[in-house]
Amino acid sequence: MAGNSQRQGATRKTSKKGAAKGSGGQRRRGLRGKGATPKAEDRVYHAAYKRKKAAERRASGAHDRRSTDVELVVGRNPVIECLHANVPATALYVAEGTKNDDRLAEAVHTCADRGISVLEVSRAELERMTGNGMHQGIGLQIPPYQYAEVEDLIDKTAEAGTPGLIVALDNITDPRNLGAVIRSVAAFGGHGVIIPERRSASVTAVAWRTSAGTAARLPVAKATNMVRALKQFQQAGYQVVGLDAGGDHTLDTYDGTTPTVIVAGSEGKGLSRLVSETCDTILSIPMAGWVESLNASVAAGVVLSEFARQRRAQGVQGE
What we know:
36% of the residues lie in helices and 16% in strands. By secondary structure, the chain is of the alpha/beta class. It has 2 domains: 71-142, CATH 3.30.1330.30; 150-314, Alpha/beta knot, CATH 3.40.1280.10. The strands form 2 sheets. The chain has a 7-stranded parallel sheet, sandwiched between helices. It has a 4-stranded mixed sheet with strand order 1-4-2-3. α3 (76-84) runs parallel beside α4 and α7 (175-187) packs parallel to α11. The longest helix is centred in the C-terminal third of the chain and has 19 residues, at 296-314. The chain is extended, with a radius of gyration of 33 Å.
């Protein structure tokens, strides 16, 4: 019969598909219960899970380095720079299997000579401590900086027997600027630096490195309220001088031999309104007309240098 032959080409072929009947059990499986919803602290992607694990580590005595105030300087060149600058370090971490070179060898030998612990950890542990994999197999642990009080600066400069010279920073958020200012204050015989407690760069490892180690000897105070701190210095007999363009004095005409607080603002925002209103004088630095401004560390360095020259000329320069 036509269409029933087994001969090739004689078999009737159809491409029609019948209507699908049912879902193949998919709907039934979808309706099947999945059990109780896990607690938030048992879901690995939930913040409650991370909090629970952190609590378990604390309870077991494990040391979560990321939850402390210590900081790790990572990378071979930054570590060497910190060691050259005599930044006070407490430990050097080296990842297992790290390829040795002159920089790593110098870091290890320097730490050994200074009595700084050299600890070998797994690469995964070092990545956990640093939060990234850009450590080049090495990390230097820096303890939190011990800030002075504003009152301490006033008292210590009074005891020094020379006119105080302080730099206060307003709206400075770059730690490299802070480190450079600390270095300039130390170089030109200043007595300390004041930074705001909020919205300001802190003395981190970057600031330590930029200061070339002078942060170890020059006090840095944190002020809860900068305006209040400046008024404390005014009550102690200081002139508060803000640096800004178009001031009522220029560096060429100002006498910097009396107790002085130099207030430097950021290159972009300058001095905040309340800080500017608190200053006794706004001082500008004579510059070429086509140069708009200097950054805080350069401006502070220029003024410090001139005030130090004036004090040397009158024999009132401090140590």
